[in-house]
Amino acid sequence: MKRIVVVFFIVLFSSAYSSAQDVIDTLKTGNGTMLIYKNRTWEYLEDRTFSGIMNPHLHNVIASDSAFNFIQSWNTDVCYTSNRQNNLTALKDTIWLCLVDSLHERFKMPFQGVVTSRYGYRHGRYHNGIDLDLESGDTVRATFSGKIRYSKYNGGGFGNLVIIRHYNGLETFYAHLEKCLVVPNEVVKAGDPIGIGGNTGHSTGSHLHFEVRFYDAPMNPEEIIDFKKQELRNDNLLVHSGLFNPGAASSYNSSGDAVTTTASSAYHRVRSGETLSLIARKYHTSVSRLCSLNRIRETTILQIGRSLRIR
């Protein structure tokens, strides 16, 4: 009986994970087979052999096309599992992601704070996420359901950082936390508390730095979340190379429509119910001009999610 009590004490209070230590005992639990190590740490056997694949359908699409050649592993000690080798700007095809589905249908704002800094160039460097104002001690929550891949202090500037890999194929970063409330390999649901807001790392004031990444490549969080309305823009996301172009950052007009701009052009992402004439009116241009820029006809049916050049 003593032995069982000691084991469950370790379960409740250990947060260290080790795969190199000698296993001194095992225990079958409702969450899996627990491996207990000589240094009094533990982990589940299933976590040791976990491949990191949260979205088998997406993985099959990626793996079946050698042109993608993207790297993604499961590593609880590093921020970027591909060693930044994935070049998403070279993506040739468009990948359709279901952000929420029948099994994981919830979405939750990481924190209901005012946006203080957006994605894009800032102070001469690229800001890969969006900053939300909060007070130290505020609760930060998981945006989608998934599994904790990283949860500890990051010396690269993030401070206390939690990274969640989601069932939809994305990863989200929650940085500058005062405290992490989760441990690696822990399964969380959308809305679960995962950290306490703070001012750690390279931060000049309490705020949440929030990133959305696909195979380690950052994208503008406003591509998927309307931070003003505090809701998803769409249940689906069309992933294409334009989302990752470091020379093009999305901005939003007064109607909340996404407009991706470069030095000489701008693009609009088509929404449900939009027509060429409606889009032309929004941007004070003509249907014929839109057709010319996009090499389409006035009778062309616009697919939802298509990037339409508007100048």
Number of strands: 23
Q: Order of SSEs, N→C? A: HEEEHHEEEEEEEEEEEEEEEEEEEHHE
Given as residue ranges, the uncertain stretches (5+ residues, pLDDT < 50) are 1-20, 247-257, 260-264
Instruction: Supply Rg.
Output: 22 Å
Shape: globular
Could you describe the largest sheet, including whether it forms a barrel? 10 strands, antiparallel
Within CATH, the superfamily of the largest domain carries the name: Glucose Permease (Domain IIA)
CATH topology of the largest domain: Glucose Permease (Domain IIA)
Q: Quickly name the level 1 CATH class of the largest domain.
A: Mainly Beta
CATH architect. name of the largest domain? Distorted Sandwich
Distance between the termini: 74 Å
What proportion of the residues form beta strands (DSSP E)? 25-35%
Brief digest:
This protein is mainly beta. The chain has five helices and 23 strands.
Care to describe what's here?
This protein is mainly beta. It folds into three domains: 2-48, no CATH class; 115-233, Glucose Permease (Domain IIA) (Distorted Sandwich), CATH 2.70.70.10; 253-309, LysM domain (Membrane-bound Lytic Murein Transglycosylase D, Chain A). Helices cover 13% and strands 33% of the residues. It has five helices and 23 strands. The strands form six sheets. Strands 5, 8, 9, 10, 11, 12, 13, 14, 15 and 16 form a ten-stranded antiparallel β-sheet that branches. The model is unreliable at 1-20, 247-257 and 260-264 (pLDDT under 50).
